[in-house]
Specification:
Layout: H1 3-27, H2 30-48, H3 57-76, H4 104-107, H5 112-123, H6 128-135, H7 139-157, H8 170-185, H9 188-193, E1 195-203, E2 207-210, H10 212-223, E3 228-235, E4 238-245, E5 255-262, E6 265-271, E7 284-286
Parallel strand pairs: 1-6
Antiparallel strand pairs: 1-2, 3-4, 3-7, 4-5, 5-6
Length: 288
């Protein structure tokens, strides 16, 4: 492997948390944001050889992530675009620190241009000209979008936060609890028995595996460790296993493992052990 390839892979690893911060807010979901990041990184690797010399590889990667996020959003629903009055709007150059703590789901309520401008400026600290280059828009348009986006997010921050997550039905609860109870009891043969033959594993930011035997090897790593404490939960309304680190906190999960079932069988495992940046701003609750 050449030094240039190694340097590029190192850059991808270093920027992945920042790319996720951007994509999670663009999609309003830490989980969907990770899907977009994976798509963007795949496209970046494919495009790197033909891209030539990159004066600003970070901006180049963010532009790919921005376009991947827009593609994701277009598949979900038509994008709303803001109507910016460039003559009357002037955004201050300093980032607004309160924006970074805004709920993920609030960002999705902004038009795409406002969303991008606010995230790049106030969450990630880009300059206005850098944001304009990433978005592919003019700097005056980005200034206008930034000001309107900030104003709208302040309004949304004043709304009540007690939005109920969707309930989980009895059958889904029983499947999830049975899987997590296997981890709690160390009964990993019972856990393996719940895996579909073609189960897929995504150890986020590290590797993917397919098939019951290969995923069974992954479970062995959990069986060999007593560091973790497990609880059934919902993350952004989706079934998950919440994982606590005994050495850090038994009150706040360190990360989560998304689970998808087909009947009584687990068909997809997405383990965020190595992608704990996804915990920022996520909505979760235990299932009891």
């Amino acid at each position: 492997m050449s030094d240039k390839v190694k340097d590029f892979e190192r850059l991808l690893g270093e920027l992945r948390p920042k790319l996720h911060r951007y994509c999670a807010r663009m999609t309003g979901s830490a989980i969907d944001g990770e899907d977009v990041v994976q798509d963007a990184l795949t496209k970046a690797v494919a495009a790197r050889a033909s891209a030539g010399v990159l004066d600003n590889p970070q901006a180049w990667l963010f532009r790919i992530a921005h376009n991947a996020a827009l593609d994701f959003l277009r598949r979900r629903a038509p994008l709303r675009e803001g109507d910016e009055d460039l003559d009357m709007i002037a955004a201050p150059d300093m980032p607004d620190p309160e924006i970074a703590t805004t709920r993920l789901r609030s960002f999705i309520r902004l038009p795409a241009l406002q969303r991008s401008a606010v995230i790049l400026k106030d969450v990630l600290g880009h300059s206005l000209d850098e944001a304009a280059a990433i978005i592919g828009s003019s700097e005056p348009s980005v200034k206008a979008a930034l000001q309107r986006g900030r104003k709208r997010l302040r309004e949304l921050a004043r709304e009540p936060e007690d939005i109920a997550l969707p309930p989980i039905d009895g059958a889904a609860r029983a499947r999830l609890v049975a899987y997590v109870d296997g981890f709690k009891a160390g009964a990993f043969d019972a856990v393996r028995a719940m895996l579909a033959e073609d189960v897929r594993l995504d150890l986020v930011a590290r590797l993917t595996r397919t098939g019951k035997s290969e995923v069974g090897e992954y479970l062995g790593r959990y069986a060999a460790s007593d560091q973790w404490v497990f609880a059934a939960g919902l993350v952004e309304g989706r079934t998950a296993m919440l994982v606590f680190d005994r050495e850090v906190s038994l009150d706040t999960p360190s990360y989560f493992v998304m689970l998808e079932f087909d009947g009584d069988r687990v068909v997809l495992i997405r383990d965020f052990l190595l992608a704990r940046y996804a915990m920022e701003g996520i909505e979760m609750r235990a299932v009891v």
